[in-house]
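Q: Here's a chain of 91 amino acids. Please give me its 3D structure as tokens.
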Amino acid sequence: MAAQTLVAQRVNVVLIDMVKPRLAMAAEISSGTVVDINQENPVDKISEMTNGKGAAFVLEAAGPQSALDQALDLVKTRGTVVTNGLYRERG
């Protein structure tokens, strides 16, 4: 729903996932770019789309630490990351 709302506001949305049914749903409900992390590197894709600057805003909703790490790699300097997942301490 967040992606649909942002697309309706003409925000350039990139949806990233690794699960085929969720990727298909993302493509169906949004006119945003859909990235399958099994096929391409999302950090490279965002870098290409933003001329190396990174995303202004990243919403991370998956929950694993690796997703949060990736969100921090995707966001531009002084950008915003919002998390909606639960993380465990490493170690």
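Q: Can you summarize the key feature?
A: The longest helix spans residues 20-29.
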